[in-house]
Amino acid sequence: MNPAQTLDLSDGDAIFYPAFFAGGDVDRLFQEFRDTIAWQQDSIQLYGRDIPLPRLTAWYGDEGTIYHYSGIENVPEPWTPALLEVRRAIEPLAGVTFNSVLLNRYRTGQDSVAWHSDDEPEFGENPVIGSVSLGGTRTFQFRHKKQKNRKRQIELTHGSLLIMRGATQHNWVHQIPKTAKEVHERLNLTFRVILGVHGRSNT
Ligand SMILES: O=C(O)CCC(=O)C(=O)O
Ligand SMILES: [Mn+2]
């Protein structure tokens, strides 16, 4: 593991570990998740039309961690051993017990996620989000919600961990823009805490 970098968001709090997972583990995890996760092509409803998301997604977690976004209701698949392995590795740094994970699969540079913040009510006031990246490096951008010229960006490398916490989701939006560059397929795992769910968290 190499040293942490803080992102200097002032009214937000984000820490980045460029090579949190290293060696053979990273390639093994990439292959395992690419080949065994129940990837779905979701779409959002916009003006009465179904628009496919520009990426594949999946939702895993404790029973009852139902998560809504853009009109989509996500019912979790149960944890797999590999997901639990990653979760346990990052929890000591995140300082929370995660009960769910949203996975994103960016097949090419044309896959992306648009500006948003992870501020759905089920995440609570100041959510801690642990985001693990595997595969091709993609640029992750932050933009301040009010002072739109305040921007930050980092390259999310293979095996990296980004932790967002504090007021980050209140004050900043983030995105993964499309790129014309040749990029390798990328997987992203964002571990989250959904509030109001009772029960065992490690089954
Ligand atoms: O792919 C990423 O690094 C970001 C994904 C993201 O922001 C999200 O799923 O909320
Ligand atoms: Mn997000």
Polypeptide structure, described:
The chain is of the alpha+beta class. The chain has one domain (5-192): Sandwich (Jelly Rolls). 15% of the residues lie in helices and 37% in strands. The chain is built from 3 helices and 15 strands. It has helices at 24-36, 81-94, 168-171, and strands at residues 5-6, 13-17, 43-46, 49-52, 56-61, 67-69, 72-74, 100-106, 113-116, 129-135, 138-144, 151-156, 160-165, 172-176, 186-192. The protein has a 7-stranded antiparallel β-sheet. A 4-stranded antiparallel β-sheet has the order 9-14-11-12. Strand 3 (43-46) and strand 4 form a beta hairpin. The longest helix has 14 residues, at 81-94. The radius of gyration is 16 Å and the shape is globular. It starts with a strand and ends in an 11-residue tail after the last strand. Bound molecules: 2-oxoglutaric acid and manganese (II) ion.
Which terms summarize this structure?
203 residues; alpha+beta; 7-stranded antiparallel beta sheet; 4-stranded antiparallel beta sheet; 15% helix; binds manganese (II) ion
Structural class: alpha+beta
Low-pLDDT sequence parts = none
Q: What is the chain-wise order of helices and strands?
A: EEHEEEEEHEEEEEEHEE
CATH class: Mainly Beta
Helix percent reads 10-25%
Tell me the count of domains.
1
CATH topology, anyone? Jelly Rolls
Kindly, what is the distance between the CA atoms of the first and last residues, rounded to a whole number of angstroms? 27 Å
Unique bound compounds: 2-oxoglutaric acid, manganese (II) ion
Overall pLDDT confidence: 93
Number of helical segments? 3
Biggest β-sheet strands, sense, barrel: 7 strands, antiparallel
CATH superfamily: Alpha-ketoglutarate-dependent dioxygenase AlkB-like
What overall geometry do the principal axes of the alpha carbons give? globular
Strand-residue proportion:
35-45%
| Number of E-state strands | 15
Radius of gyration based on Cα positions: 16 Å
Write out the strand line-up for the largest beta sheet, numbering strands in chain order: 1-2-13-10-15-8-5
Architecture, CATH level 2?
Answer: Sandwich
